[in-house]
Amino acid sequence: MNSQHEISSEVLTLSTIENIIKNNIKLVLSESAFEKITLCRAFLDDIVEKNDTLHYGINTGFGSLCDIAISKDEIADLQLNLIMSHACGVGEEVPQEIIQLMLLLKIQSLSYGFSGISIDVINLLLAFYNKEIYPVIYQLGSLGASGDLAPLAHLSLPLVGLGEVWYKGQKVSASIALQQEGLKPIKLKAKEGLALLNGTQFSLAYAVWCSLESNRLYNLSNMTTAISLDGFSCQLSPFDDRLHQIRSHEGQIDVAATIRQWLYDSEIAQNKKMSVQDPYAFRCVPQVHGATYQALAHIESIITTEVNSVTDNPIVFADDQEIISGGNFHAQLLALPLDYLAIAMAEMGNISERRLYQLIGGKRNLPPFLIDDAGLNSGLMIAQYTAASIVSQNKQYCTPASVDSIVSCNGQEDHVSMAANAATKAYKVVKNVEILIAIEFMAAVQALEFRKPQKTASKLENIIESYRKKIPKLVKDRILSTDIELTKLFLRTVE
User: Fold this and answer.
1) Shared domain check, 403 and 291
2) What span, in angstroms and rounded, lies between the C-alpha atoms of 372 and 370?
3) What letter would DSSP give residue 477?
4) What is the mean pLDDT of residues 185-213?
5) Which residues have CB under 8 Å from 179's CB, separation 6+?
6) Within a domain: 419
7) Among 322, 318, 439, 326, which Cα is nearest to 382's?
8) What share of the chain is helix, strand, coil (3-state, %, to 5)?
């Protein structure tokens, strides 16, 4: 396995990002990226030296102040002022797993040689990533247009020796972390502050994380569903390939095939069933999970394109000797998919809770709430309440952020995407769905206890055996919040 990943113009896929993060792979700049960055910066320095034409954010003010000229000797102050004034983030801190992605994605976007950034800035960003120096960033402050301004300002503050960072497990001032690592803060040149703050990397980092985690949860949900099907003694006929071929949606076909694979040697699945048809939460899994599958595939394609894009403003085309102002920072292309992702995952969580509800209902020779001596014991009664509350909260989080907009900057920025709000909401939904799957898994495995001595499929039995070494059968009431957390952690180990 490579210990380094070269930042280059080669397509950076989400699977590659996942590999970089999981295996703690360090980042280095490719020679081709170095040359492009250097060439672009040289052209921009020449433009600044001449100072004979106004270029937005290079020798002008920002936003609605774009017509105010800035003298050559004030350009460095302009960039520092930009970072400090825009560091207006509030609310909860951004998780470090997201900040790590922000650093990676910002480095990638700047590496194409269209942003006018200097090698010194790139090298310091690389040092932050490789040495795990994570700037303290706050969730609120971005409108998803003109870039994720406030969050990216907080990402940038430590580069100039300001703000706070997470370093070796502690929150410290950026100056301390820089000093301990033998790093020096940079003095920003023309456009560098703007290049750092313009861009979609805050929303995009959340999108990348949500996409990767959602795919993991999709696979876990299919596995858990297979256990639930046997736990509730369901028919396998709804998963017959012939049914799905005549509707021919890829996701539907994939889910049905996956369930058949999980249950191919299940004793319980071969039993004669008590009911002619099962409830929709079991019978319609291919259709519901399949829709989520297709949504996630669509969303991943959009996110991958954004990962490999330049999203600041203005754009420096050194080869063409031009600087062009545009709107690549506008994150509508992320806002819509992030809302879509939240909805798709919420629905997968919704149907999971419905299966849970059926499992604990005292039907099909299962005891009420999946516990012996029900009455004295409440079993999984309130675990379903917890799941129901989460499902309801997810519905509230699924109100689209992308249909909202608000005028800012004296009317100059008169349509914004709200992608950042869509991103943080989607993150919460995905986190919630992980809990829902864990609770369903608990119930499904508990239901199988009452099917013994018959067994489910051998592969599932192996997983359950490993699980039971950590969380024993529920024989009498105990504190279930601990079980839920341990189940969630266990499922993170299941491949």
Assistant:
1) yes
2) 7
3) -
4) 95
5) none
6) yes
7) 439
8) 55, 10, 35
**DSSP string across 142-211:** --SSSSSHHHHHHHHGGGGT-SEEEETTEEEEHHHHHHHTT-------TTHHHHHHSSSHHHHHHHHHHH
Angle between helix axes 458-468 and 480-491 (nearest 10 degrees) is: 130
How many other C-beta atoms are found inside a 10 Å radius of the C-beta of residue 399? 12
The phi, psi pair for 268, rounded to 5°, reads -65, -40
Report the alpha-carbon distance of residue 393 to residue 390 in Å, rounded. Answer: 5
Whether 469 maps to a domain, the answer reads yes
Together in a domain, 188 and 225: no
pLDDT in tens, 403-451: 987 777 666 676 788 899 999 999 999 999 999 999 999 999 999 999 9
Q: Is 112 a catalytic residue?
A: no
Average pLDDT over residues 176-205: 95
CATH classification at residue 152 = 1.10.275.10
Quickly tell me which residue has 């099962």 as its tokens. Answer: 278
Domain that holds residue 123: 4-199
Same domain, 251 and 172: no
What average pLDDT does this structure show over 74-82?
Answer: 86
For the chain, how far is it from start to end, CA to CA, in angstroms?
A: 19
Residue 321 falls inside a structural domain? no
Per residue in 162-181, pLDDT tens? 999 999 999 999 999 999 99
Residues in the chain: 495
Residues 211 and 193 in one domain: no
Domain shared by 127 and 47, yes or no: yes
User: Which CATH number is 374's domain given?
Assistant: 1.20.200.10
170 is a domain residue: yes
- Options 56, 112, 206, 340, the catalytic residue: 56
**Beta pairing class for 315-317 and 322-324:** antiparallel
- Alpha carbon 80 to chain centroid, angstroms: 30
Helix (H, G, I), strand (E, B) or coil at 47: helix
What is the pLDDT confidence band of residue 189, given thresholds at 50, 70 and 90? very high
- Give the residue from 199, 222, 248 where a domain finishes: 199
- Write the single-letter amino acid at 409: C
Assess whether 210 and 273 both reside in one domain.
Answer: yes
Q: What is the CA radius of gyration of the chain?
A: 26
Interval 152-161: pLDDT, tens: 999 999 999 9
